[in-house]
Amino acid sequence: MFDDLPPDLARLNALRVWHAMWLERIDRRIAAVRQREAEEEHGRRTRPQDPDWFAELGTGQGQPPTTLHAGGCYLAGRLRRAVDRTEALRLLDAGLPACAACRPDNDLAFLG
């Protein structure tokens, strides 16, 4: 069928070694990709669940919260503290603004 391989043993062995090196390299890459995908899947499975509500904190130590968000809100900053339903209602009642995107006040049925 394909007769484009060299006729002598030395060159055939050289080709075999070259292809074996490439197969080893490909196998190492496959193993690395599988490992990375397994780690990502493990991270997805073990990631803690978002809280139902959280307060976005102001920058600087001891700063009061700036906004109340529902869990998973895409507008929230990185500085945050999880709050339960009672504290979320207390914060809203104290005048903390609710996020305009996720509307935690609607979820909490806050009428204030």
Topology record:
Layout: H1 9-46, E1 53-57, E2 65-70, E3 80-83, H2 85-93, H3 104-107
Antiparallel strand pairs: 1-2, 1-3
Helicity, in percent?
Answer: 40-55%
Helical segment tally? 3
Residue stretches low in confidence (pLDDT < 50, at least 5 long) are none
Shape: rod-shaped
Q: Into how many domains do the coordinates divide?
A: 2
Quick one: biggest sheet?
3 strands, antiparallel
Quaternary structure classification:
single chain
SSE series: HEEEHH
The radius of gyration computed from the alpha-carbon positions, rounded to a whole number of angstroms, is 29 Å
Which structural category fits the helices and strands? alpha+beta
Structural overview:
The structure is a single chain. The chain is of the alpha+beta class and 112 residues long. It has 2 domains: 7-47; 53-107, no CATH class. Helices cover 46% and strands 13% of the residues. The protein is built from 3 helices and 3 strands; from the N terminus they run αβββαα. Strands 2-1-3 form a 3-stranded antiparallel sheet. The model has no long low-confidence stretch (mean pLDDT 90).
Report a brief summary of the structure.
The protein has 112 residues and is of the alpha+beta class. It has helices spanning 9-46, 85-93, 104-107; strands at residues 53-57, 65-70, 80-83.
